[in-house]
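step 3/5: co-fold with S-adenosylmethionine
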Amino acid sequence: MSEGWQGWDAYAPFYDWENARTLGRRDVAFWKRIAKSIDGDLLELGCGTGRLLAPMARVRAGAGRTIGIDRSEPMLDRARRRLRRMPVALRPALIRGDVRTWPFRPKRFKAVVAAYGLLQSLVRDADVNATLDAAAAGLSRGGLLAIDLVPDLSAWEEYERRIPLKGRLSAGTTLTLVESVRQDRRKGLTIFDEQYIVRTGRTVRRHEFQLTFRTLPMDQVLTRLERVGFRIDHVLGGYRGEVWHPEADTWVILARKR
Ligand SMILES: C[S@@+](CC[C@H](N)C(=O)[O-])C[C@H]1O[C@@H](n2cnc3c(N)ncnc32)[C@H](O)[C@@H]1O
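step 4/5: write C-alpha cells
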C-alpha cells in the first residue's frame, strides 16, 4: 500500500497551478479568520507550498510565531520561495518533518491547523491517531485544533487516462494532466495516478506520480478527537459556516483542547 506522504515531491512543481484551477482561493478567507483569532503560536500541519501558511501569517503581526511543517522538501522549497516575498517580521518558519511525530515541546501551540484534507493523507488509523495524539500534546489548554476534510473522495467515479486539466504554465510552456482514478473500497482509499506532460517548444517531458487519500467518516474523527482530550466546538458544512450535513462538500471541525 502506498504511504500518504508519497507522491508530493513529484507533484510539487504542479501543485499551485492545479490548485488555482480547482479549489482556487475558496478556503483562504476562512483560514485567515481562524489565524487572526489566535493569540500565540500557530502550527500548520502539511503546509505544502505555503498556499495557506503565507496568508495566515500576514494577518498575525505581533500575535506569536506561525510555523509550517511538511515532509516534502520540494513542497517546502516552493513555500520558501513564496515566503521570501514577505516582510521578515511576518515570515513563518518552515520545518521539515512528519506530522505523526513532531519535534515541538508539549503545550507550545495555541492553534494547530490541518487544512485541505491533510488528515486524509494519513492512510492508516494508526497514522491519524498518532497525528491527533501529537496535536493534543502540542496544544495548550483551550488551544484550537482546526481541521477540514474533503468528504466526497469515495464518491469519485473511477476512470482511466482522462485529461481534466490543460493550460499554460508560463510563456512557452504548457501542461496537460492525464489522470486515472481507482477506489479501494475495502481500505477506504482513493488512488490518483497522475501524469503531467510538460511541453516547451519541441521538448516534451512526462512526470508520473501517485497520490493516495483516505475517506474519514465524521463520527470516527469526532470520537477519536474526544478520546484524545478535545471538546468539539463546531462542525460545519463549509467555509462560510454552513450547517454540516453528510453531503456537504467541505467538512470543517473546530475542537478545543480540554
Ligand atoms: C493537500 S497538501 C496541503 C498543502 C497545504 N496545506 C494547502 O492547503 O495547500 C498535503 C501536504 O501534506 C504533506 N504531508 C502528507 N503526509 C505528511 C506527513 N505524514 N507528514 C508531513 N507532511 C505530510 C504533503 O507533503 C503535502 O505538502
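step 5/5: annotate
Residues 4 and 121 are 4 Å apart (CA to CA).
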